[in-house]
Amino acid sequence: MSSLLSNYIPEPILEQILLHLPSTTLIRFTSVSKSWLSLITSLSFTLQRSLSHPNPTLLLIQPTPSSHYSTTFSTTPPPYSTHHPFSLRFIGSLYGVVCFVEQSVGHDHAITLFNPSIRTYLRIQTPAVKHTALGFGFDTCDRDFKVIRIFNGVELYSLKHGGWRGIHCRYRKLQELQFSNTQCFLHGNVHWVVSPSYATKSYVLIFNMVEEKFKKMVFPPNLVLDALCTLQIKVTVIEGYLSVLDCSGIWMMREYGVAQSWTKMFTLNLERGCISKVFGFRSSSKVLMLLHKKGEISLHSFDTKTQEIKDLRMKGEIIAACEDTGSLVLLDRNSCHVSKSQAKRRR
């Protein structure tokens, strides 16, 4: 079949046709020939397909079903069952792959990479430790997904090479920093909001996935963050801008890497609610916030275009929210497939 098509259709045009096909069709087409398998499973094809996706669906990963119907997003369960619905903590989402860590009291366990589009996942085993921080990103030079973990030292996991290795770090007291419980990836860097235990001013700590080095990014004087409220600060990406949120507003770095470009863009009125999780998206004007209010957890959205806060009437925990781009990352024999009962998607 592939040889017949190649006689009539130039390879670049054939690739463009394949780029617009659904994931389920592409998976079947990997059996056509070795050349098609090589093309469809190549990282360059996968990334091109993710980046060219015009209107990705917003996807929520929930531990329990929701009866609320939404035309804005789809919902799906996590790839496997856990003993407690709050035991999976979101780390990041990139090119259709979601990264989260399994937690128990005082310890972190396996780190999971999950592709909800094709229902595959990979559990990365780690010793049961309490991580100071975790991050998920992509190395554009080596074309590799990586996970960074900070505990007694610094280690980096490479999906391409399938293992952990130690990273030399000139910041010898990373374990003494207080990290916000959110992180994000933008322009090749993982970002955390941190505060030194001996100081009152916070800053953004970044780790570059290509150079594999840490750097600091300062806040301007008029963005006052002290060590006592660092755990309440959330960092995310909103419409392609590095952003931080607290219970009063949203600040955006309008020119990446320029501290003076931090600007308070929006004021939030959460009616005494407290943000526990925030999910920003590169291609959407909506920001999803999981709020604690009057003893309940509920999902709200904030639209940066209309500046409207909307109660989505969804109660309970949300593990993650991501843009479903139909990615084919993890389409290989080393990944586990989600069972049919777990894979059933709900609207």
TrEMBL record:
It holds the Pfam family FBA_3. InterPro entries: F-box-assoc_dom_typ3, F-box-assoc_interact_dom, F-box-like_dom_sf, F-box_dom, SCF_F-box_component. Residues 3-50 form the F-box domain. PANTHER family: BNACNNG10540D PROTEIN, F-BOX DOMAIN-CONTAINING PROTEIN. This is F-box domain-containing protein.
